Every structure is written in C-alpha cells, then in structure tokens.
C-alpha cells in the first residue's frame, strides 16, 4: 500500500487540488444571491481560499514537470509564485474565520489589517533569512510554507471552525434547524483540516512543524495529501448543503411576499366594501332623513332629525378617515431614509451617543410595505436607546440599505454588549422589535455577545393597491 501511494503521489496531489477547486466553484456560482445571514455572506472568502489552494497544490504537480523544459530562473519564479499563492490561500481562510465570528467592526478591521501586514512581511523576512543562510529558492519556499501554516492556516481553520459552530444559533433563529447540523459538521471538518494541514507539515530549514509529513507517512502509511483531500471533499459536500440556505431564504421571502400581498388585497377589499357599501347606505339614509326633515312641520321633530343627520355625517367622516388610512400612500425609500436620519441626529444630540448613519440603494429600492417607516422608526429608537443605556461610552453605526427585493436596517455599537436574553426569554424591547419586524414580513436578528448588533431584513413587494375615489359628503339639511 505504501508503494502504491508513493507511485501515485502526482495523481493524489492533482485530486487534492481538484477537490478544493470544486469547493470554490460551488460557492462562487452562488455569490450574487442575496442573503441575510452572516454565514452565507462569508462563504465567498472560503471560495477564495479554496480556489487559491487548488492552484497552489497543482503547482506542486506541474512545476516539477516543467523543470526539464524551462530555464532555471523561470522555474525559480514559478516556485516563488507557488509559495505566495499558498500563503495567500491561508490569508483568505483567516478572513473567512474573522467574518464568521461577527467581531466588532473595529476589532475585525484591526485583525484584518494585522493579518495582511503579517502576510506581506513574512515572504520578505524569510527571503532575508534565506539570503543570510545561503538557502535556495526551494528551501525559502518550504520555510515560508511551514511558517505560514503555523501562523495563518492553523489559526484561520480554528477561527472558522468556531465561527461555523456559533452560526448554528443564527440558523436556528432563521428557522433553518435542518441546516444547523451541516454547519456543525463543517466546523468539525475544518478543525481536522487545520490539524492535518497546519501542524503536520513538510520539513523546512526554518520553523518546522511538530510532525513532518514524512514522519506521518512512515507511522500511518497514509499520505497526508490524501487525507487533506478527503477533508476538502467533506467540506465541499457540506458547503453545498449549506448553500441550501439560499433556497430556504428564497422560499421564506416568497412566503412573506404572499402574506404581504394577501394583506394588501384584504385591505383593498375593506376599502371597496366600505366605500361602495357602507358609506353609500349611510348616504342614502341621510338623504331619506333630509327629505323627511323638509316634510316635517313640527320644529322639535325637525331638530331631532337634523341631530340624527349630523351624527350620520360624523360616522361618515370617521369611515372616510379609516378608508384614507387604508389607502395611504406607501412609504418611499427616500422618505424613510430622511426620517431615520433625522431620528438618529436628534437622538445623538439629546443623549450624547455618537451615531453614524449610512444609507445606500435608495434609487434601486422596491416598493416599501405599508407602515414600514413607522415600524423602522420605532425599531431604530429602541435599538439606540439600548445602546445608550447598556453599552456605555460607545459609537453606534446605523446602516440602512435598500435593494430591489429587500430592505435592511443594521444597528451596531462597539460597547460591552447587552444580555437581552435571560433565562431563555427576550427582553420586552427586543420582543417588540421582533414583532414589528414580523408585521413587516421580515425578520430581526440580535447578537449581544460583543457589542450589540441588531439587523432587520424586510422583503419588498411589488403590488401596491390603487387608491379608491373619495366619497362625496352629505348635503346640508336645509330646514323649510
């Protein structure tokens, strides 16, 4: 068996690269689909890691083949490129893990910048060391690869594993309990891959790992590339299963649109019934009483009839106002953005909390659900109040994003966090915000572990009922 693996090492490496290329391609083709979950939005970083990892592994196959045909300088350049690609793949895995953890923006940005600086510095430092020690290009690449696996791949894989495990809560809150198990399994596979690829590495002049791949092969008889490829294959299958989130979200969005359409149609029916039935009946009764008042000779009776007509006019006015409320002009994206901007500015002036607001996509927004502006105002006010009460000295970032099929309001602060759920129950304010999001056909997600993050995602409908004509008023009763 050992001889078989040694003779087919090239095929195993090629299959290893092919598995990771398939993983990247499976995620990449879904990149333009909208999603409300951090997990699916972060998968693009996993795709970038998988693509670059595939090309780096394939480089281990094709560069040795080209050594017989290409100039030595060109081969050295290919080796350098292979080393940079390999470390670049590890950097993208770190970014995937950082985004899954949903850290505070400042913390994430700082760690991202630190990882990029370290990635840029590592080839330079190893090159300086190689020059001082008289290493060749291959020794430089092995040292670079070994060091990068220890300081990038291993931490990145573990960060991603922890992040995937934590995303199970978001999947449960989104009603995707069936997909939660795939996230847990993917977390386990990433942790295993981190050990196989981050701790067991090829011997290098500098920064060798705790165990070399040669020692592993001699102890187990299994090539490390095959095990890494199997881990990549398992991760590919689980990633495809996780991509079912897009289908579930599309179904949820369609259900929400259907509910919104049903409510709009029911409101339109109420308006028609009130206008064409109830008001016309009251109007006819008023005309009949008007004619009766003209014929009545008794002044007392005429006054009573006039009082009844006045009451009918009051009832009619109330019904008109109700019809107007049912047929009020829908909120617009620009109007909601202005109202929330004013609210954020006034709140900042009143409380001293620094509020930074960003609005995008106003020009491409789909029609806004009825009453969404009022609900969003109350949600934003409650979220900012929570930040002012619980987060201490902090900054609140408000992001209002419109799209043709979705509206998203995100409120984040960098304070100490809010433990809104005690004994398994949401606080009163959070329950109200969830209910308002539900009334808009959307969903609210909350995370108070590190700072506070509240995200409201609302699907946008395209059916807006046409307004009905305003009913004419009763004529005044003119006594004879």
Question: Key terms for this structure?
Answer:
Rhopdopsin 7-helix transmembrane proteins; 480 residues; two-stranded parallel ribbon; 5-stranded mixed beta sheet; alpha/beta; Heat Shock Protein 90; disordered C terminus; single chain
Brief synopsis:
With 480 residues, the protein is an alpha/beta fold. The protein has helices at 2-7, 9-28, 38-66, 72-100, 105-133, 137-173, 177-198, 213-220, 224-242, 244-295, 299-326, 333-351, 372-390, 428-439; strands at 200-201, 211-212, 354-360, 395-402, 406-413, 421-422, 425-426, 443-447, 452-459.
Description:
Strand 8 (443-447) and strand 9 form a beta hairpin. The longest helix is centred in the middle third of the chain and has 52 residues, at 244-295. A five-stranded mixed β-sheet has the order 3-4-5-9-8. A two-stranded parallel ribbon has the order 1-2. Strands 6-7 form a two-stranded antiparallel ribbon. It is elongated. It is of the alpha/beta class and 480 residues long. Helices cover 69% and strands 9% of the residues. Helix 5 packs antiparallel against helix 6 and helix 10 runs antiparallel to helix 11. It contains 14 helices and nine strands. It folds into three domains: 2-242, Rhopdopsin 7-helix transmembrane proteins (Up-down Bundle), CATH 1.20.1070; 253-326; 333-459, Heat Shock Protein 90 (2-Layer Sandwich), CATH 3.30.565.10. The relative contact order is 0.09.
């Amino acid at each position: 068996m050992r001889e078989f693996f040694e003779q087919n090492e090239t095929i195993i490496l090629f299959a290893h690269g092919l598995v990771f290329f398939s993983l990247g391609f499976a995620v990449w083709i879904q990149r333009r689909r909208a999603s409300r979950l951090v997990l699916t939005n972060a998968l693009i970083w996993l795709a970038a890691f998988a693509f670059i990892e595939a090309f780096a592994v394939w480089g281990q196959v094709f560069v040795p083949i080209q050594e017989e045909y290409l100039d030595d300088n060109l081969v050295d350049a290919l080796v350098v490129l292979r080393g940079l690609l390999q470390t670049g793949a590890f950097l993208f895995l770190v970014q995937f893990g950082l985004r899954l953890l949903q850290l505070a923006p400042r913390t994430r940005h700082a760690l991202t910048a630190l990882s990029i600086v370290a990635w840029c510095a590592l080839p330079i430092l190893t090159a300086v060391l190689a020059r001082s020690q008289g290493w060749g290009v291959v020794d430089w690449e092995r040292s670079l690869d070994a060091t990068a696996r220890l300081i990038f791949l291993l931490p990145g894989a573990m960060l991603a594993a922890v992040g995937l495990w934590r995303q199970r809560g978001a999947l449960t809150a989104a009603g995707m309990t069936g997909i939660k198990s795939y996230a847990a399994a993917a977390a386990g596979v990433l942790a295993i891959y981190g050990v196989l690829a981050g701790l067991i590495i090829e011997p290098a002049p500098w920064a060798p790992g705790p165990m070399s791949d040669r020692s592993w092969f001699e102890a187990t008889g299994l090539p490390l590339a095959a095990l890494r490829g199997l881990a990549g294959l398992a991760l590919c299958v689980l990633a495809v299963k996780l991509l079912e989130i897009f289908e579930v979200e599309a179904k949820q969005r369609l259900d929400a649109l259907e509910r919104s359409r049903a409510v709009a149609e029911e409101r339109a029916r109420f308006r028609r019934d009130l206008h064409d039935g109830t008001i016309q009946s009251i109007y006819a009764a008023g005309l009949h009483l008007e004619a009766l008042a003209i014929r009545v000779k008794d002044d007392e009776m005429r006054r009573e009839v006039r009082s009844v007509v006045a009451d009918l006019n009051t009832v009619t006015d109330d019904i008109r106002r109700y019809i107007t409320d049912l047929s009020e002009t829908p909120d617009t994206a620009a109007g909601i953005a202005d109202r929330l901007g004013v609210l954020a500015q006034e709140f900042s002036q009143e409380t001293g909390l620094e509020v930074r607001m960003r609005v995008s996509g106003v020009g491409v927004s789909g029609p806004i659900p009825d009453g969404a502006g009022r609900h969003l105002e109350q949600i934003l006010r409650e979220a900012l109040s929570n930040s002012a009460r619980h987060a201490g000295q902090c900054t609140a970032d408000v992001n209002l994003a419109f799209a043709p099929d979705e509206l998203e309001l995100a409120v984040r602060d960098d304070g100490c966090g809010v433990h809104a759920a005690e004994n398994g129950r949401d606080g009163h304010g959070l329950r109200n915000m969830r209910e308002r999001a539900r009334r808009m056909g959307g969903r609210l997600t909350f995370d108070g572990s590190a700072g506070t993050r509240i995200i409201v995602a609302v699907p946008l409908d395209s059916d807006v009922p046409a307004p009905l004509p305003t009913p004419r008023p009763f004529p005044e009763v003119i006594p004879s």
